[in-house]
Every structure is written in structure tokens, then in C-alpha cells.
Amino acid sequence: MKIVNLLHNPDAGNEDHSEEKLVSLLEANGFECRYSSMNKKNWKKIEEEVDFIVAAGGDGTIRKITKELLARKLSEKTWPIGLLPLGTANNIAQTLEINESTEDIIQSWHHPRTKNFDVGRIRGLPDTTFFLESFGYGLFPFVIRKMKKIDKSAIESSDMEIKTALEILHESIFTYEPKYCELNVDGTDHSGKFLLAEIMNTRLIGPNLFLSPHGDPGDGQFEVILIPQKDKEKLASYVSDKMKGIDEPYHFEQLKGKNIKVMWEGTHVHADDEIIKLEKNEKIEIELREGLLKFLVPN
Questions:
Q1: Strand partners, 32
Q2: ∠90-92-94 over CA atoms, to 5°?
């Protein structure tokens, strides 16, 4: 019988997913379960005999677990991660096409496929050293900052939270002024003025923005999405369609690369859902590190 360590964020999303319910499901499907709440300080203590980690939560939960795994010494054991997507956006799970019911996902772990997952290493920031989903400038960090200021008590569901973020984004598209970005991708200059510049590892970011429909976090390359002023209406149409429930991906200018040097005229950037304040024109270097993580995905 495989032993799993369930790392559970009981505050993720808006659905009911209690410790008792998740442990019961895992044990009923033939796994020996060790439980840790992410709200407790001792969740980082994972026993050697554990076969894999179960991350039960959203993208923020996965980032928190990943930060701990990436900090381990090369001589220390690390583990593949099985995802139970219980958060708001679940962009990482959607990118990995983990869309089944909780019980179906658990059953798939008896004969899973292991998927390598690249990590973006960041140089030039004192406290933030990596990203899983995306790193970027412009509209998206602007919207994250606005979302952090709203009263979340009136938001009753994950769908409502995503809808609110899309509404803020749609409104911001028409007021945000594009900024100059000095951008070098694998030695080639792509500088210009942009509403949004995103270095993406997953297919989706933020409120399920499907900006990189062919992205693969295990292919050894980033997708760099650039949206200049001339594509403002196109971006607004895409967001408007999403607000109406039309979920067709739009295709924006896209580059591929592994090593990126970037300097932005503005003062805020995001790494996943974390906002970082910069000095103006601060230079950042991004390096792709191949296959640092492994996720269990259905066959």
C-alpha cells in the first residue's frame, strides 16, 4: 500500500473539503494517509517512507509546497506531487489537464504518469527566487493590486471571485497606459511598449486567462506573451467573451525562450500571485530550470 502525505489548505476555495472527508477518500481508495494542515507549522516534516505528496488546495498552496521542496539539499529526498485542485483558479491543475472529480483523481494515482515541470528562476529580486505559473509586468500586476484591496467578504464563490477579477481587468484595459519594456529573449532583442508582458510557464494565469493555449510546463521553454497597444481591443474582446462564458483562447504575440533579461519602465511586477515593488528600470534575469518538479497526472 502506497503511503501519501496529504498537505491540506483548509482555507482554499469556497467548497467543503474537510480533513475527515479527504483522509476518508484516500483510505477508501487504498492509500495509507499521513495528514498535515498547511495552517500548522509542522507541515514541512515529511517522513522518508512517504511515496508521494498530495497537495490539496489551490495554486498558492502548490507554490508554498514547491518553495519548501526547492529549498531542500540535493542529498535530501524529494517527492512527486499529486494535485487535488480545491482553489479558486487552479491554473496549474488545468494546465496539467487534471480536471476529474476528487475521487477519480485519487484513483488515477494507482497507475499515474509522472510529468516533469519546469521552474522559472529569478535573479535580481532579494526575496522572490522562482515562479511556477508566470512572471510579468503591466496589466496583470495592476489588477492583482486592485483585487487585494476589495472586500472579499461579499464574494461567495470561486466563480464570483474570477468574475470580479475579469471585470476589473476589462475596465483597466481602457485606462492603463502601455510602458516601455527592454526585453532580451535568448540573445534577441524584442523591446517595445506593451500593455502586458508575461513570461509564462503554464497555459493560464490569474482569473483563468488562457493566454498560452499551447504552453507546456515540461517542454524546456517559456512562452513570452506580449500585448502592445494595437491589441488593446483584441484583449478587451477576449476578456469580454470570458465574462460571458465564452472560453475560446485568443492568440497574441508569442515568443519562446529559456533565458530572458527584462527591464520595465513601471514599478510593480508579479511572480505567480505575489506582487513585488521594484525600483524603476530595475533589471531582472529569468532562467528556465528544466524538470525540477514532478507531478502525477492521469494516463
A1: 3
A2: 70
Place of cell 540573445: 187
CB-CB contact of 159 with 195 (8 Å): no
- DSSP of 144-162: HHHHHHS-GGG--SHHHHH
CB atoms within 10 A of CB 127: 7
What does the pLDDT read at residue 152?
76
How far apart CA 231 and CA 229 sit, in angstroms, is 5
Give pLDDT, residue 264.
95
Cell numbers describing residue 202: 503554464
Cα(85)–Cα(60) distance, integer angstroms: 11
Cβ 131 vs Cβ 271: under 8 Å: yes
Cβ neighbour number for residue 182 with a 10 Å cutoff = 15
Task: List 297's β-bridge partners, or say none.
Answer: 113
- Domains of the chain are 3-111 (3.40.50.10330), 121-290 (2.60.200.40)
- Per-residue pLDDT, 75: 75
**Which of helix, strand or coil describes residue 27?**
helix
pTM: 0.94
Q: Which residue, among 2, 9, 161, 163, has the nearest Cα to 84 in the 3D structure?
A: 9
Complete DSSP assignment for 111-176: S-EEEEEEEEEEES-SS--EESSEEEEEHHHHHHHHHHHS-GGG--SHHHHHHHHHHHHHHHHTTP
Please state at what angle helix 232-243 crosses helix 158-173, rounded to 10 degrees: 160
